[in-house]
Amino acid sequence: MISTQILRYFPHFSGLEEDALGQIASISDKKEFDAGEELFTEGDRASHFCLLRAGQVNIVYRLGDGQTVVADTLGSGEAFGWSAFVEPHRLTASCVANTGGEYIRIEGESLRRMCDEHPTWGYRIARELCKLLRDRLSALRVRIAAAA
User: Fold this and answer.
1) Which residues, 6 or more positions from 14, have their beta carbon under 8 angstroms from its beta carbon?
2) Are 6 and 53 in contact (CB under 8 A)?
3) What is the secondary structure of 108-122 as a DSSP string?
4) Cα separation of 147 and 143, whole Å?
5) 27: Cβ–Cβ under 8 A, 6 or more apart, which residues?
6) What is the rounded CA–CA span in Å between residue 127 and residue 134?
């Protein structure tokens, strides 16, 4: 379990009441990682929504020819593993650490259940998740334009 104060730092949860934060904190833990470590692999089951506390990670797509391309680079305060929130709960990319760091893992199934039971929380979280997806798509568009 993590502190509710840690969750307040992230926009995905900053507007929620203390009770909501407490319930989300109870299904969360901290993980450390080393540079070069693959935190998750494209295609695997998405079991956790993650919040980056420290360090830097790349979101990496594997192309059909075996090559990889960095879709985005994330730093402290950003989120990844959104597939744990969205069906079919399969990871759409891999996540590889550039540096050592720390992230928070929030158990996806429990978070989805909480959002179903508390639609107001679910709406706030889903709205922030949509912003995350918009930003990720915009970053990818910039990378594609730069490579062309």
Assistant:
1) 8
2) yes
3) HHHHHHHHHH-HHHH
4) 6
5) 106, 107, 110, 111, 114
6) 11
Q: Residue 8 and residue 18: Cα distance in Å, rounded? A: 9
This prediction's pTM? 0.90
Q: Which of 44, 49, 74, 48 is nearest to 59 (CA)?
A: 74
State both tokens at 12: 């995905």
Domains in the chain with CATH codes: 4-147 (2.60.120.10)
CA nearest neighbour of 132 among 31, 45, 59: 59
103-127: per-residue pLDDT in tens? 999 999 999 999 999 999 999 999 9
Is there a contact between 81 and 46 (Cβ–Cβ < 8 Å)?
yes
Instruction: Supply 75's token pair.
Output: 């730093």
